[in-house]
Write a structure and sequence with these properties.
111 residues; alpha+beta; 2 strands; 13% strand
Protein backbone atom coordinates (compact mmCIF):
# COMPACT_ATOMS: atom_id res chain seq x y z
CA UNK A 1 0.00 0.00 0.00
CA UNK A 2 1.36 3.40 -0.96
CA UNK A 3 1.59 6.32 1.42
CA UNK A 4 2.19 10.01 0.88
CA UNK A 5 1.89 13.17 2.91
CA UNK A 6 0.08 16.05 1.23
CA UNK A 7 0.31 19.64 2.42
CA UNK A 8 -2.76 21.84 2.32
CA UNK A 9 -3.07 25.13 4.15
CA UNK A 10 0.38 24.68 5.67
CA UNK A 11 -0.50 21.39 7.34
CA UNK A 12 0.60 17.88 6.41
CA UNK A 13 -1.90 15.06 5.98
CA UNK A 14 -0.60 11.47 5.71
CA UNK A 15 -2.69 9.49 3.23
CA UNK A 16 -2.71 5.88 2.12
CA UNK A 17 -3.48 4.78 -1.42
CA UNK A 18 -3.02 1.83 -3.71
CA UNK A 19 0.49 1.25 -4.93
CA UNK A 20 1.18 3.37 -8.00
CA UNK A 21 -1.51 5.97 -7.21
CA UNK A 22 0.77 8.24 -5.19
CA UNK A 23 1.44 10.65 -8.05
CA UNK A 24 -2.25 10.98 -8.92
CA UNK A 25 -3.21 11.59 -5.29
CA UNK A 26 -0.45 14.19 -4.97
CA UNK A 27 -1.76 15.94 -8.11
CA UNK A 28 -5.31 16.01 -6.71
CA UNK A 29 -4.02 17.43 -3.42
CA UNK A 30 -1.99 19.98 -5.38
CA UNK A 31 -5.15 21.17 -7.12
CA UNK A 32 -6.92 21.52 -3.76
CA UNK A 33 -3.89 23.39 -2.39
CA UNK A 34 -4.03 25.79 -5.35
CA UNK A 35 -7.67 26.53 -4.56
CA UNK A 36 -6.81 27.04 -0.88
CA UNK A 37 -4.02 29.44 -1.88
CA UNK A 38 -6.43 31.31 -4.18
CA UNK A 39 -8.92 31.71 -1.32
CA UNK A 40 -6.27 32.78 1.19
CA UNK A 41 -4.99 35.40 -1.26
CA UNK A 42 -8.42 36.82 -2.02
CA UNK A 43 -10.03 36.52 1.43
CA UNK A 44 -7.11 36.56 3.86
CA UNK A 45 -6.52 34.31 6.83
CA UNK A 46 -9.24 31.87 7.88
CA UNK A 47 -9.60 28.76 9.99
CA UNK A 48 -8.49 25.42 8.61
CA UNK A 49 -12.01 23.93 8.45
CA UNK A 50 -13.28 27.00 6.57
CA UNK A 51 -10.32 26.95 4.16
CA UNK A 52 -10.72 23.26 3.35
CA UNK A 53 -14.50 23.51 3.03
CA UNK A 54 -14.35 26.49 0.71
CA UNK A 55 -11.54 24.97 -1.39
CA UNK A 56 -13.55 21.75 -1.69
CA UNK A 57 -16.63 23.68 -2.78
CA UNK A 58 -14.63 25.49 -5.46
CA UNK A 59 -13.33 22.15 -6.78
CA UNK A 60 -16.87 20.71 -6.69
CA UNK A 61 -18.11 23.76 -8.61
CA UNK A 62 -15.51 23.10 -11.33
CA UNK A 63 -16.67 19.48 -11.54
CA UNK A 64 -20.34 20.44 -11.80
CA UNK A 65 -19.59 23.00 -14.54
CA UNK A 66 -17.65 20.39 -16.51
CA UNK A 67 -20.49 17.91 -16.14
CA UNK A 68 -23.03 20.49 -17.33
CA UNK A 69 -20.88 21.35 -20.33
CA UNK A 70 -20.39 17.68 -21.15
CA UNK A 71 -24.12 16.94 -20.87
CA UNK A 72 -24.88 19.91 -23.12
CA UNK A 73 -22.38 18.65 -25.69
CA UNK A 74 -20.16 21.70 -25.26
CA UNK A 75 -16.48 21.98 -24.60
CA UNK A 76 -15.43 21.54 -20.98
CA UNK A 77 -15.67 24.86 -19.19
CA UNK A 78 -17.84 26.35 -21.94
CA UNK A 79 -20.62 27.26 -19.51
CA UNK A 80 -18.31 29.09 -17.12
CA UNK A 81 -16.70 32.44 -17.75
CA UNK A 82 -13.56 33.56 -16.01
CA UNK A 83 -15.06 36.98 -15.28
CA UNK A 84 -18.18 35.63 -13.60
CA UNK A 85 -17.65 37.49 -10.30
CA UNK A 86 -21.30 37.32 -9.27
CA UNK A 87 -21.41 33.54 -9.36
CA UNK A 88 -18.05 33.32 -7.61
CA UNK A 89 -19.13 35.71 -4.86
CA UNK A 90 -22.41 33.84 -4.34
CA UNK A 91 -20.50 30.56 -4.09
CA UNK A 92 -18.11 32.08 -1.56
CA UNK A 93 -21.02 33.43 0.51
CA UNK A 94 -22.62 29.97 0.60
CA UNK A 95 -19.29 28.37 1.51
CA UNK A 96 -18.76 30.88 4.33
CA UNK A 97 -22.24 30.19 5.71
CA UNK A 98 -21.52 26.45 5.67
CA UNK A 99 -18.12 27.00 7.32
CA UNK A 100 -19.73 29.15 10.03
CA UNK A 101 -22.23 26.38 10.74
CA UNK A 102 -19.44 23.80 10.78
CA UNK A 103 -17.31 25.84 13.17
CA UNK A 104 -20.27 26.25 15.55
CA UNK A 105 -20.54 22.45 15.76
CA UNK A 106 -16.82 21.92 16.46
CA UNK A 107 -15.99 21.73 20.18
CA UNK A 108 -13.34 24.25 21.32
CA UNK A 109 -9.82 22.93 20.74
CA UNK A 110 -11.02 20.19 18.38
CA UNK A 111 -9.94 22.00 15.20
Amino acid sequence: MGQITVRIGGRGYPLSCRDGEEEHLAALAGHLQAKADELATSLGSMSEPRLLLMAGILVADELFELRKASAAGGAPGATATEGDDGRYQALLARAEALADALEEDVPPGAA
